[in-house]
Design goal:
Number of domains: 1
Bound molecules: protoporphyrin IX containing FE
Number of strands: 0
Radius of gyration: 18 Å
Number of helices: 7
Strand content: under 5%
Largest sheet: none
Structural class: mainly alpha
């Protein structure tokens, strides 16, 4: 089944029709999506700028990551759920949009980077200056922050690209 016929099939399902035809669902879910963006980007700003040595340098990276990582995960779960509902409501417009797939690839990259790059820091014996790839920490922190910012741009761009 091609992506196009999958999107057409989804479009005809009762749930997709209900999402589209119930006037409050899309704006309400979009609002939830935007609130969750604040959670992801807020947590990324604080954690990445700490790891880049710019913010909260009077606290250990571990303390900052430990405090903000749960916000990142719960906001991402909310984004995934709300994004799924938005996509289900307009499957053709979303699934056939190249910017949507660029955004999904970046979300996956940001997620993987967060997973690989944050958990070692949570270990009680972790010392940033003795880390195996200490020289990579600052560039990775900036890269991670840049990824989330580009994801926001892609999210907004979906509506303007066909
Ligand atoms: C995790 C999976 C995600 C899915 C499946 C998803 C899906 C979607 C969909 C379908 C839309 C509506 C696009 C349209 O109709 O124009 C949207 C909008 C948007 N998304 Fe996501 N998204 C996800 C995660 C994220 C993340 C992590 C961010 C940013 C950190 C983000 C930022 C945005 C923005 C800024 C918009 C535009 C909102 C608006 O103007 O109403 N999304 N997303």
């Amino acid at each position: 089944m091609s992506l196009q016929s999958f999107a057409s099939h989804l479009y005809g399902t009762p749930i997709s029709t209900a999402i589209r035809e119930t006037s409050w669902i899309i704006p309400a879910v979009q609002s939830v999506h935007i609130i969750a963006i604040a959670g992801v980007v807020g947590a990324a700003i604080v954690m990445d700028l700490r790891l880049a040595g710019v913010l909260a340098t009077d606290e250990t990276p571990r303390a900052v990551v430990k405090r903000h990582l749960p916000w990142m995960w719960s906001s991402l779960a909310l984004l995934l759920t709300s994004g799924f509902v938005l996509g289900l409501g307009e499957p053709y417009r979303v699934l056939m949009n190249a910017v949507f797939w660029v955004k999904m690839a970046l979300v996956l990259t940001g997620f993987t980077l967060t997973l690989l790059f944050r958990y070692p820091i949570l270990h009680p014996d972790y010392r940033i200056e003795h880390a195996r790839a200490a020289a990579l920490i600052k560039p990775l922190a900036w890269a991670s922050l840049a990824i989330w910012v580009v994801v926001v741009f892609c999210g907004r761009w979906i509506a303007y690209y066909q």
